[in-house]
Predict the structure of Adenosylcobinamide kinase.
Amino acid sequence: MKVLVTGGARSGKSGFAEKYAAVLGHEGLYVATAQAYDDEMRRRIDLHRQSRSERGFRWTTAEEPFALAELLERSSAPVVLVDCLTLWLSNWLLRLEQESDAEAQLEAKIDSLAAVFAAAKQSTVLVTNEVGAGLVPEYKLGRIFRDLSGRMNQRLAREADQVFLVASGIPLELKSMAFKL
């Protein structure tokens, strides 16, 4: 089962994805992609770890901000949950922003991730943010991020068996296995 869960910030998508992954299997790998660039982000990461523990989510956790496709490819866990793809993408964008071919490199990384997702033998739940519903970002880097995020989400949604949009804590199924374009 390949599942993509999307939604806005604080929509409840991570909590839903964790519950869904737990239904798919009692053990697995939780892949966190966040990096702590400052004290506020360190507190957020700590709170996220604590909330997972309080909800009884006792899987193995791997913190991997960059080598996501490689980690998924070599994982033997029966279920993998990745939270979240837009943080993974922003990690790479910040690393490559001065490169003249940054967008091409990021498109290649997205393609690699999509290929690994499509070929995965284990159940995989990917969490991402829906970032295209707001205003056009004022800065070039923000526009590049928004555009890449949108293309990444579309690419992964095509490979997914199910796609959910979470709004106000309510998951809405957008795509099911019975309807694959």
The helical segments are 13-24, 39-54, 68-74, 85-96, 102-119, 140-159. The first strand starts at residue 2 and ends at 7.
